[in-house]
Structures are given as C-alpha cells and as structure tokens.
Amino acid sequence: MSTSTAPTSSDASDLRVGVIGLGFAGTTHLDAFTALPGATVVALSGQEPARLAELAESRGVPETYADWEDLVARDDLDIVSIGVPNALHHPIAVAALRSGKHVFCEKPLATTADLAAEMVEAATAADRVLEVAYNHRRRADVAYLARYLAEEPIGRVYHSRASWLRRQGVPGIDSWFTNKAAAGGGPLIDLGSHVLDIALSLLGEPRVTHVSAVAYNELGRAGRGGSSGGGPVSSRSTHAFDVEDFASALLRFEDGGSLHLEASWASYSKAHEDISVELLGSEGGVRLHVDNYNTEGTVTIYRDVAGAPTIERPAVQVPAGHHQSVIAEFLDTIRAGETAGGELRFAGHHGEYALHRSRVIDAAYASAAAGHELEVPA
Ligand SMILES: NC(=O)c1ccc[n+]([C@@H]2O[C@H](COP(=O)([O-])OP(=O)(O)OC[C@H]3O[C@@H](n4cnc5c(N)ncnc54)[C@H](O)[C@@H]3O)[C@@H](O)[C@H]2O)c1
Fold this sequence. Notes:
Layout: E1 2-4, E2 15-20, H1 24-35, E3 39-45, H2 49-59, E4 63-65, H3 68-72, E5 79-82, H4 89-98, E6 102-105, H5 113-126, E7 130-132, H6 140-151, E8 157-166, H7 180-183, H8 187-202, E9 208-216, E10 246-253, E11 258-264, E12 273-281, E13 284-291, E14 299-305, E15 308-312, H9 322-340, H10 352-370, E16 374-375
Parallel strand pairs: 2-3, 2-5, 3-4, 5-6, 6-7, 8-11
Antiparallel strand pairs: 1-4, 8-12, 9-10, 9-16, 10-11, 12-13, 13-14, 14-15
Helix pairs in contact: 1-9, 4-5, 5-10, 8-10
Bound molecules: nicotinamide-adenine-dinucleotide.
C-alpha cells in the first residue's frame, strides 16, 4: 500500500530513484541521492511507519511503501537502491533488474555466492548497472594509496594483510546481523568484505584461487562483546545467533601472492575499532590504519632511501561521505552508458567484482567448516 506526501520538484531528465530501507544504510542512500544533482528520490520503503513518514516528510519524498514489492512494482523508476538485511538483497535486486531498473545494493552482494551469481546474471541479461556499496574503498586515504602505488610502485607485492577488528561490537540484541539465514555470516561477511574489497582493489584485482579459514564464536554467544556494553546477545535475541564472532583466513592469488584476512565483532585484542590494510612489496610497503575512526594520520609508507629504512606519514585528511562518492560514480556510469550505444552498454558494471568477493567469503566459510584449504570457484 502506498502513502503520498507533498510532491517534490524534479527535472524531467533526473533519474528517478526508489530507496528501500530506513536504517543506517537506507538513510545514507536517501541522503546521498537527495544531495547529488541529476537524481530525485520519488519513493521510499521500510517497515518502521513513524520513521518512514518522518524521512519522507523531511526529505520531500512523495510516495512511501511498507513493503519493497510495491515500490519495485512501479514502472516509472530508473533506480532501486537497496539498504535492507542481506537476505533481501537478492530478491529485490533480481525483481528490480528484470523490470529494467538499475540497482544500487548494499554490501555484501548476497548471503551466498550462488545468489550473488544470479544477481549478476540478471544484471547482465537486462544490461542494467548493478553497483555495490563497497564505500570504504572510496575513502580519501585509500584513494591516496591507489594513486601512490600507481606513481611510486613498491615492487612485487607478495603478501598483504587486511583486518577489521572490534574489541566490542557484536551487533545489537534482536539484530538480524547475528543470524546466518538473514545475514549469510558474521563479521567476515559484514566487516571483512570491506577490507577484502580495499585490499583487492589496491592490488589491482588479483584472482583469489584458494582459501584456508577458521571461524569461532567464543564471546558473542557467551553474552560478551555486545555493542552496547556486552549484555547477553544471544539469549534475548529473537533470531538464532548462529554466525561467527571472529574469523581468520589465508587467501592465495593466481599470481602467487597472498592475503591474510581477519575480522571480529568482539575479541580481547585491539582497544576498540581497528581497521588495517597492509601491502608488503619487494621495494616498499604501505599501510592504511584507521584506529577508532580517526580521520588523519591513517597512511604510512615504508621504503629504503639511500639504503636506510624510512617511514613517511603523508598528511591525508579523510572527510566523511564515501557512500556519496560511490553513488555519484554509479550515477555517472548510468549516464555514460545511456549515451554510449553498443550491445552491452553497461558491460563491466553488472556486479562482477562484487561477485568475486562473495565467492571468496563463501569459500572461507566452507573452508572453516571443512577444516582445510579449498579452491575458490572462478
Ligand atoms: N556500507 C556500509 O558502510 C554499511 C553500513 C551498515 C550497513 N550496511 C549494509 O546495509 C544493509 C542494511 O543494514 P542496516 O544497518 O541499515 O540495517 P537495519 O536493520 O538498520 O535496517 C534495515 C531496514 O530494512 C527494512 N526492511 C526489512 N524488511 C523489509 C521489507 N520487506 N520491505 C521494505 N523494507 C524492509 C527495515 O524496515 C529497515 O528499515 C545490510 O546489507 C548491511 O550489511 C552497510
């Protein structure tokens, strides 16, 4: 059922957007599309009626829907933007793509690689853009490192480390995040997918061929490590808490390189929230280290100058708003494709790179369950 509020002004050439989800992700999408030129949010969906009404009113969105199906059924939308629990990404994206809409989807692409592959197939068949909110790679410090590596190569990068570790941060009581069916996994798919994305993009997208992983749940299920101070996360939840709270994986690349990937929602290790991506090259090394969301001093460069080891910390400021950057790129991709012509105008933008991340994470969970290294399907 739809509810109307006052219509907003929109240019006829604007891309018409429907946003689904009212939590952190949906609100961030809504604000990013609203702030960017050339797009107008004309529909909003979510299951919290008061918040739905408040967001529609304050952002001037004319139509609202409780259920995503009613929003996707509209035939006047160019874009559907998905900010809902992971298990809903697949049905919403496939329905939207099959009805000719471009899709902006939160990470991870889906709860499993098979479902992610179906989304990429739907995007390819319809030749619509499927972009995923791997927003952290658009951070100013990650962009700085990408430029630095292009201009000042560090030799052969043989090993890297990528981790997102929380001392205390199992998502809240009653949250879908801790349920395998709703989320697909714990911190590895939730936080690890972001640092995996940063590392693979900085490394130039090497193909991951093998993974050996372990996954544990020693704290969360015992009621420790909750984000609001550590109440009994599992016993009060309406969802089964059946995902890991810590995972660690060694990935091997086709080019002989390797990556150690680690993610935790709770562990007695770091002080609070600790994000790190480190590349070890034969002629230098670089590190991104975000300690409790600090916004400067996050980049370190290690080299030898005249035979002596040096450490450089360039002054890079990290403004907020990297979701807006990825959405701006998404809109540019659509506009460029609309004018390009050709058979598959959006080739390369059908979610392929996000599918590879899903395959790696899937294989990591399977490896942890099997207790040995596994191949990552191509
Ligand atoms: N990229 C990032 O930095 C980032 C940060 C947080 C979350 N996320 C991702 O965003 C997604 C959502 O996370 P969140 O924290 O915003 O979740 P949330 O639980 O806060 O919000 C989920 C929203 O989905 C809506 N929803 C659920 N079922 C629905 C239905 N049938 N029809 C319409 N709406 C429905 C709910 O009403 C709610 O508004 C997840 O995939 C998560 O991994 C990404």
